[in-house]
């Protein structure tokens, strides 16, 4: 294949790649519109982005392809997903209209955009691409020369703009600290101070009686055999979802006192 | 065709222009086989080394020295019941572990195992590397960032609290440490003048980059541990807090996939550390030693593997030594220490490179100038007014040390009264 021919036609491998990837990309793009769950839509975008990157690489633009994955898939979409994830697995978009007639407005604007796009695309002339020649420099180096040589001022300005935006976002979400920071030492000292008022030095006991149950809502038994109420999460206690300790372990004594029934061999195995 | 153009430019050292498709396929299969067996070995290696560090025997039952233990574990995982969570999002739940594994398998495609080797009994020569292109190291970062999706989606799709918390932690962690990692790699790009792995290995003929670029190497090593979610940075899996993080709801083979991905990722970051900082496949001898016999043919593959396993040993050593960090400490360390240090180092290195190569200052002038800058920075620091001391805490109140007849320890801010025996001779002490 001569160099000028290479510019006009695609190689067999590239054409195959295109015809495999392109329909899948279109499907994924349609999926973005029609799937119900936000996370699925995000996954569709990710698929389109990665396929696009593969196509860039196939058209000898490896830098563009790789940066597409690192920046858009790895950082931007990940942030989106990060937020969506917190919405939960069962959440799906609500389809109620919040603005009256928004469907019709959206449809109209979409039609307008379609008309503009079709007009532009039909007017565009597609010149055959020319492959890189020997004296042209490599992908990243050539890009770097353009960005940091010819357009260095624009580049720096955009950088300053982005940093300013980030600083602004930080300032808007920043809250002045009104009270001193609760450091580890402070918390430890507070715990010691709370001792005379019935506080504990150690973390609270874990719930569950491990021999018979390990449920979160069952109180643990203390060394004296009494159930420890505060071993169950405060939330469960407030909701009234707490269960009693297993009846076989706790027994109400004659004086109404709770005590443990000692059953089975109690360390007598060795004898 | 693309291969020719790419190889001709961008300073890729290895030549893939005459590579038949069959050779690429064979190499790809060999890499996958290498990775899978390495993972089996790595699990045994880790358990054995940690056991030695903790003075216990470790796995010693199946096979010689317990070598077949991980094989037995893998078989057990394969045959276990595959539990699907009812509340899970089926498709994504299945997709996540696959994504994790396939992304982790991608990295070794651009890692050079050795220089050009000749297949025995033939004239066929080929680079001991699947492929290479001008942005190979960026490709590694891209593969790593796709791998995070496996963790995030796995945690989300399980429809359960602990996995979700693990996934959120993991995402924040991997993204933050990827920044520090990328910045530390930049200094290697500056020195090597290329982002192609084979060219970076070639540029280390005189000196391995971990010596001149020591700060970047330290940042890389720390962030590579953070990136692979290993102790002391294993917060996404923290057993004591999150059961096992994003993979809590996974069982059987799906769990094994996550496990596999984790260990392959360890191998990946180790191989990247070796390739970029530790001389790649180069023998640990000076350049030109024995007429470069140690750096040609099949022998370099041995050097490469030895170095990778040395880094793996470091991973295990760290795991056996250090405790898990608290999450906020860990994030503060990443954002307020690692990233500024890495960024500052890149700026310093850029300045040095500019002075030595672009401005072409003589070395002596440059050294004097550098000394001047250091003095200029240090002088104000010496005469900087000292920070105002914190106000002295109030005089501690003295308590009754025997309230109610029991010895009472002082609370914070309290002081014991001076002992009555203070300064007295203890009877019979000078016998």
From TrEMBL, chain B:
Protein location: Cell membrane; Membrane
Function per UniProt: NDH-1 shuttles electrons from NADH, via FMN and iron-sulfur (Fe-S) centers, to quinones in the respiratory chain. The immediate electron acceptor for the enzyme in this species is believed to be ubiquinone. Couples the redox reaction to proton translocation (for every two electrons transferred, four hydrogen ions are translocated across the cytoplasmic membrane), and thus conserves the redox energy in a proton gradient. This subunit may bind ubiquinone.
EC number: 7.1.1.-
Segments for region (Disordered): 390-431
Quaternary structure and interacting proteins, as annotated: NDH-1 is composed of 14 different subunits. Subunits NuoA, H, J, K, L, M, N constitute the membrane sector of the complex.
InterPro entries noted in UniProt: NADH_UbQ_OxRdtase_su1/FPO, NADH_UbQ_OxRdtase_su1_CS
PANTHER family attached to this UniProt entry: NADH DEHYDROGENASE SUBUNIT 1 (PTHR11432), NADH-UBIQUINONE OXIDOREDUCTASE CHAIN 1 (PTHR11432:SF3)
Entry-linked Pfam families: NADHdh (PF00146)
PROSITE patterns for the chain: COMPLEX1_ND1_1, COMPLEX1_ND1_2
Annotated catalysed reactions: a quinone + NADH + 5 H(+)(in) = a quinol + NAD(+) + 4 H(+)(out)
Tagged with keyword Nucleus: no
Sequence similarity: Belongs to the complex I subunit 1 family.
HAMAP family: NDH1_NuoH
Membrane topology: Multi-pass membrane protein
Entry protein name: NADH-quinone oxidoreductase subunit H
Enzyme type, top EC level: translocase
One Gene Ontology molecular-function label: oxidoreductase activity
Keywords (A to Z) from UniProt: Cell membrane, Membrane, NAD, Oxidoreductase, Quinone, Translocase, Transmembrane, Transmembrane helix, Ubiquinone
Transmembrane region(s): 25-45, 91-113, 133-153, 174-195, 207-226, 255-278, 298-318, 330-354, 366-384
Domain of life, source organism: Bacteria
């Amino acid at each position: 294949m001569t160099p000028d021919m290479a510019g006009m036609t695609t190689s067999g491998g590239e054409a195959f790649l295109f015809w495999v990837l392109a329909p899948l990309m279109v499907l994924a793009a349609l999926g973005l519109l029609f799937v119900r769950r936000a996370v699925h839509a995000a996954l569709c975008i990710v698929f389109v982005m990665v396929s696009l990157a593969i196509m860039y690489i196939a058209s000898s633009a490896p830098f563009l392809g790789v940066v597409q994955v690192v920046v858009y898939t790895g950082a931007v979409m990940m942030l989106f997903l990060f937020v969506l994830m917190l919405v939960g697995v069962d959440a799906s978009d609500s389809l109620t209209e919040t603005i009256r007639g928004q469907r019709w407005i959206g449809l109209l604007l979409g039609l307008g955009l379609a008309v503009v796009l079709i007009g532009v695309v039909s007017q565009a002339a597609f010149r055959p691409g020319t492959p890189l020649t020997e004296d042209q420099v490599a992908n990243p180096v050539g890009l770097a020369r353009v960005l940091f040589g010819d357009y260095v001022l624009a580049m720096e300005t955009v950088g300053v703009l982005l940093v300013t935006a980030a600083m602004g976002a930080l300032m808007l979400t920043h809250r002045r600290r009104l009270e001193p920071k609760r450091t580890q030492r402070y918390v430890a000292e507070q715990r010691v101070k709370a001792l005379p008022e019935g506080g504990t030095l150690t973390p609270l006991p874990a719930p569950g009686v491990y021999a018979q149950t390990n449920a979160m809502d069952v109180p643990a038994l203390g060394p004296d055999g009494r159930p420890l109420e505060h071993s169950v999460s405060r939330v469960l206690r407030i909701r009234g979802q707490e269960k009693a300790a297993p009846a076989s372990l706790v027994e109400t004594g004659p004086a109404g006192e709770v005590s443990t029934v000692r059953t089975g061999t109690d360390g007598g195995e060795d004898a | 065709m693309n291969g020719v153009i790419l190889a001709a430019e961008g300073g890729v050292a290895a030549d893939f222009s005459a590579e038949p498709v069959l050779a690429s396929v064979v190499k790809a299969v060999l890499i996958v086989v290498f990775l899978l067996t390495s993972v089996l070995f790595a699990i045994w290696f880790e358990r054995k080394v940690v056991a030695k560090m903790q003075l216990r025997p470790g796995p010693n039952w199946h096979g010689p020295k317990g070598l077949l233990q991980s094989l037995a574990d893998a078989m057990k995982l394969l045959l276990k019941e595959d539990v699907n969570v009812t509340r899970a999002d089926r498709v994504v739940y299945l997709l996540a572990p696959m994504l994790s594994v396939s992304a982790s398998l991608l990295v070794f495609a651009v890692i050079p195992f050795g220089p050009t080797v000749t297949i025995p009994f033939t004239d066929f020569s080929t680079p001991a590397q699947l492929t290479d292109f001008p942005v190979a190291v960026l490709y590694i970062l891209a593969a790593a960032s796709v791998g995070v999706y496996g963790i995030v989606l796995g945690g989300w799709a399980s429809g359960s609290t602990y996995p979700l918390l693990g996934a959120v932690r993991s995402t924040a962690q991997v993204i933050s440490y990827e920044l520090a990692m990328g910045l530390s790699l930049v200094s290697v790009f500056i020195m090597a003048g290329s982002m192609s792995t084979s060219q970076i290995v070639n540029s280390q003929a005189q000196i391995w980059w971990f010596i001149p670029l020591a700060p970047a190497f330290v940042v890389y090593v720390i962030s590579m541990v953070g990136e692979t979610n290993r102790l002391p940075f294993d917060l996404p899996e923290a057993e004591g807090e999150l059961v096992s993080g994003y993979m809590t709801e996974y069982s059987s083979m799906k769990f094994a996939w996550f496990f596999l991905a984790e260990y392959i990722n360890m191998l990946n970051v180790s191989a990247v550390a070796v390739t970029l900082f530790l001389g790649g496949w180069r023998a640990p001898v000076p350049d030109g030693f024995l007429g470069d016999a140690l750096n040609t043919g099949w022998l370099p593959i041995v050097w490469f593997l030895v170095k990778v396993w040395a880094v793996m040993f470091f991973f295990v050593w760290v795991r056996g030594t250090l405790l898990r960090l608290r999450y906020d400490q860990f994030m503060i360390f990443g954002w307020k220490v690692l990233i500024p240090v890495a960024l500052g180092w890149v700026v310093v290195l850029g300045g040095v490179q500019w002075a030595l190569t672009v401005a072409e200052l003589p070395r002596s002038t440059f050294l004097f100038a550098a000394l001047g800058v250091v003095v200029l920075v240090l002088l104000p620091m010496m005469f900087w007014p000292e920070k105002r001391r914190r106000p002295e805490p109030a005089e501690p109140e003295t308590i009754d040390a025997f309230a109610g007849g029991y010895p009472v320890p002082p609370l914070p801010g309290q002081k014991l009264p001076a002992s009555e025996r203070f300064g007295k001779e203890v009877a019979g002490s000078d016998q």
